[in-house]
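> call design_seq(struct)
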């Protein structure tokens, strides 16, 4: 059985073009969503996937109706294949129930993996370049004024929660600069070890 899935991003857009194409392609059942492709919650797609059985084919008018990114498309189509469900995109003429269509989608999967690796390599190269110039990653530390206030207030009987609220800091920042007040400190430690 062919199952159609159509999606538009806003209420102003119309599903008619997609529905007509899915009907012409022989979809016996259709599911729809009016939601941005970036949103994780797409109830129509969830219904279509729950309805589909092994041997069925999920059909979309265009690839971007199923997912906004190549990795997302590869993930969804991989899940369909694992469940024995085919995938067809009418505009791009991809049909994973055929050998040629499956090959095209494997090429897409390889491109998505290549894209992920390039992104990781670029990030690592950027961090290495920054380190070679003496810069460290991560968030900047607290200002000298804040550190002085933490150290002074840590010596009072005020609770860490009160101090954090007054200085508008997180508990991790408080304990970083006042380790002697840490609930994880063992008896006899000064907080200066290590």
């Amino acid at each position: 059985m062919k199952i159609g899935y159509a999606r538009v991003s806003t209420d102003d857009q119309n599903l008619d073009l997609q529905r007509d194409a899915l009907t012409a392609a022989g979809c016996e059942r259709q599911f729809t969503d009016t939601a941005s492709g970036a949103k994780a919650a797409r109830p129509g797609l969830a219904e279509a996937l729950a309805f589909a059985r092994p041997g069925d084919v999920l059909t979309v008018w265009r690839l971007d109706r199923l997912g906004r990114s190549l990795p997302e498309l590869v993930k969804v189509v991989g899940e369909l294949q694992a469940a024995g469900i085919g995938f067809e995109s009418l505009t791009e003429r991809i049909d994973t129930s055929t050998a040629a269509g499956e090959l095209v989608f494997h090429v897409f999967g390889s491109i998505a993996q290549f894209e992920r690796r390039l992104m990781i390599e670029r990030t690592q190269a950027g961090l290495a370049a920054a380190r070679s110039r003496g810069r460290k990653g991560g968030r900047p530390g607290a200002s000298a004024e804040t550190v002085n206030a933490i150290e002074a207030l840590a010596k009072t009987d005020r609770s860490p929660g009160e101090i954090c609220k007054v200085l508008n800091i997180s508990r991790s920042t408080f304990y970083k600069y006042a380790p002697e007040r840490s609930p994880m400190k063992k008896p006899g430690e000064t907080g200066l070890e290590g």
